[in-house]
Amino acid sequence: MERPRCERKGTLPHPATYALTWDLLSGRVTKFFCDEHAQNARPQPDHISKLIGWNPDPAAVEED
Ligand SMILES: [Zn+2]
Question: What pTM, to 2 d.p., does this model score?
Answer without folding.
Answer: 0.76
